[in-house]
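Hi support team,

I've been running sequence recovery on a batch of backbones for a student project. Most finish fine, but this one hangs at about 90% for roughly twenty minutes before it completes. I'm not sure whether the input is malformed or the queue is just slow. I've pasted the structure tokens below so you can try to reproduce it. Let me know if you need the job ID as well.

Thanks,
M.K.
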């Protein structure tokens, strides 16, 4: 029922910006925490950022603090990840997720298919 569709990934040079979007449908998203995770080749999937839909409370991984901003648009049922001053180490597949708890419970959450972000040096 719940569907999450990511978009906005691409190939950019270091120092550039991208804005990812996660279009959410099929749920009452005011109930949820929304997440961005990423997974680089050969590495574990890692937490990037979260936002509580109802309050707007946010959390960030240390590696992206000051560079990335998570936000949501209630009218569009969309969560965004604004990524500035991108680094090659940001290269990964970025996944949107929704869950009822913080931290996320992987098996009880909904996940999108991911969008590729590649940052060249």
């Amino acid at each position: 029922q719940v569907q999450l569709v990511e978009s906005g990934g691409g190939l950019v040079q270091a120092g550039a910006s991208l804005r990812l979007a996660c279009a959410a449908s099929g749920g009452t998203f005011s109930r949820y925490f929304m997440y961005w995770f990423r997974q680089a080749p050969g590495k574990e999937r890692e937490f990037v950022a979260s936002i509580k839909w109802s309050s707007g409370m946010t959390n960030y991984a240390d590696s992206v603090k000051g560079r990335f901003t998570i936000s949501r648009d209630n009218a569009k049922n969309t969560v965004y990840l604004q990524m500035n001053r991108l680094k090659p180490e940001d290269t990964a597949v970025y996944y949107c997720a929704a869950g009822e708890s913080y931290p996320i419970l992987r098996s009880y959450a909904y996940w999108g298919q991911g969008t590729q972000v590649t940052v060249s040096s």
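--
Follow-up from support: It reproduced on our side and the slowdown came from queue contention, not your input. The chain is about 0% helix and 50% strand. No action needed from you.
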